[in-house]
Amino acid sequence: MSDVRNVYITKEVADILKINPSYLLRLAKSMNLAPSEMREAGKRNYLFSKEAVEKLKKRSE
């Protein structure tokens, strides 16, 4: 069973990484994350898995 505490919306991830949400989306799309790591959840809003957030942290350092 999945734990919703391990799923983040665009703004939460941008705040964690201290980057602009628009830049976050460009970065995430350029990384070709798996469908299980990132998916669209409305206009300009995405859901990210904990694994995706970790990958984005490493990439943005």
Outline:
This protein has three helices and three strands. With 61 residues, it is α+β, with helices and mostly antiparallel strands.
Description:
The protein is an alpha+beta fold. It contains 3 helices and 3 strands, in the order E-H-H-E-E-H. The chain has helices at residues 10-17, 21-30, 50-60, and strands spanning 7-9, 38-40, 46-49. It has a 3-stranded antiparallel beta sheet. The longest helix has 11 residues, at 50-60. The mean pLDDT is 93.
Which characteristics define this entry?
61 residues, alpha+beta, three-stranded antiparallel β-sheet, 3 helices
In terms of topology, how is this protein built?
Blueprint: E1 7-9, H1 10-17, H2 21-30, E2 38-40, E3 46-49, H3 50-60
Antiparallel strand pairs: 1-3, 2-3
User: Nearest-angstrom radius of gyration?
Assistant: 10 Å
- The CA-CA distance between the termini, in Å, is 31 Å
Count of DSSP strands? 3
Strand content: 15-25%
Number of helices: 3
Strand order of the largest sheet: 1-3-2
Oligomeric organization of the protein chains: single chain
Structural class: alpha+beta
- What general form does the structure show? globular
Mean pLDDT over all positions: 93
Helix residue percentage: 40-55%
Low-confidence stretches: none
